[in-house]
Amino acid sequence: MKKKFQIEVDCANCALKMEEAVNKLEGVTAASVSFIQQRMTIEAPDGSDFDALMKEVVRACKKVEPDCVINL
Amino acid sequence: MTKKQEKTLGRIGAAGGLLVLAVVAAPRLPVPAILLFLVPYFTIGWDILWKALRNIKNGQVFDENFLMAIATVGALAIGEYPEAVFVMLFYQVGELFQAVAVGRSRKSITALMDIRPDYANVEREGKVETVDPDEVAMGETLLIRPGERVPIDAVVLEGVSTLNTAALTGESLPRDVAPGDEVISGCVNLSGLLRVRTTKEFGDSTVAKILDLVENSSAKKAKTEQFITRFAKWYTPAVVIGAVALAVLPPLLLDGDWTRWFRQALIFLVISCPCALVISVPLTFFGGIGGCSRAGILVKGSNYLEALARTETVVFDKTGTLTEGGFQVTAIHPQECEESRLLELAALAESHSSHPIARSLRDAYAAQLDQSRVSDVEELAGRGVKADIDGMTVYVGNDKLMEEVGVPWRPCHRVGTTVHLAGKGEYLGHIVIADQIKPDAKAAVAALKRAGVRQAVMLTGDAKEVGQAVGAELGLDQVHAQLLPADKVDRVEELLKGKSPRGTLVFVGDGINDAPVLSRADVGVAMGALGSDAAIEAADVVLMDDKPSKLAQAIRMARRTLRIANQNIVFALGVKGIFLLLGVLGRANMWEATFADVGVSVIAILNATRALKENG
Fold it and tell me: Which residue of A1, A25, B169, B402 is surrounded by the most CB atoms within 10 Å?
């Protein structure tokens, strides 16, 4: 299952760090953060609890870039 | 400008004013100068300092906030107050400019790809409602007014109009539609009111598929982009370590001035942010993909853009790619009578047949056929047709039929299918029907050669003579004919082995039954994809219309994108390298260093937006 989220992030390097952090999370098959499109794409196995997963994602992102916003 | 950016602009103005005041007032007031300078310093820099502290707490040490914090606090420590404030100020100005520039180009790229229909006028219970295209089910009836975009793939129920396909193909070739015709989402209705029935849901419609494809294209990254990501990871720490070494080693070893080397180390830090690269290279690729999609060339990832730029061999499928894929009359050779008379007889005799050859004869004749002139039509399987036209018995068919009726026939030098005619026991002449070469095919091959493509190859399932003739006319380097679909894969494998390791092989097909070859080639290009979902799925690059010349354009645009990306890399690294060197030598001051960092980013971003242009 693949979902897209609108994000707000100020610098390209921060977007890279977020992408890396999210990719390290358990339960995330693949993630990409596009600074240019201000969009995060997250792929997780079918049937996984996306709401819970996104909480993890937000936490991981806030840690590397506290100013980022992820519109769930 | 966003709210956030406006706020930053306000802070920049305030801090600038306070800095000027501080410079003027410092020698005249009886308070320590540092207190006066700290006012503008904190006005402009508090958030940077705060972020630096917070990131250290989170284990994210080496970022630009940290670098700026260290550099300016260091400058304050050695008594360079105005410099400290100015560096912070200029850094914020640069960041603001960067944010605005990126925002602008983001907007212009997304505007290019804005083919998303905003609404659909749907007829429900006798009333017309305006709803989101997502809410329309399959089989509902829509109204499309002139000037509106077709929201969902549909079939026309009522009305005639002209559609503009420019948003999909990059070329405004108007398409006429009448009841029964399909309309493709994303096109703009130009002239008449249309009532249509949807044949798909929005999510399965052409426009949704194209948008999905372009939006996901940034997931597949080019090697150049990956290099930048990896590079950024070790670049900043390396420069910070370098700065520490610069601050500590020379004074220790050379017994130098600590303050001087410390200042030079700070300059080193200011230049060390990799931002120019990290922003501008992906932005270049994104712009390149955006520009291509504007021209009707959909690229599924920047890695394919990179591969296209290195094209060495282009392999074309013949039918539907270099040729129209349908039969057309290419020559009329009468024995005695007029050409039009021969064609008229053939068209009349074949007026009841649904065979493709019969259809092409009728298309060529164009005028209305009076079927009352034809009687006693007899289809002769595998040979042709016999009919009475105006009382004369006419035979239309192949050489076997001519032998059968005992008429001395003449073979034709033209390549294609020859249709002979005989009447009253005499040979009347023949008509040649062939798959027509596309009007721009020859120019397309020439353009590829000019673009540096070393080999243009054609694969076809057709007979050898047909293949050779097309190959000779178009100036192709190799022609492989009489191939079964599986043979095509083998040929491509062979060609792949023969090319140089850096070059790539591009296969161009119509996407219909060449999926295995499309996936085997380095870059699979499907053309004429307007309305063909299969082609959009199977290929790496999709040419929306059926012009082979678009391929050369795609290669040119890919090359330009790569060139801009490389320019940005060389420029950013070069300028930074020079300033790092000047910093080591003590020839750069902090003002210049700040400019080197921020200025390079801005110039690189502006350069990146050039990738958007349509023309290669």
Answer: B169
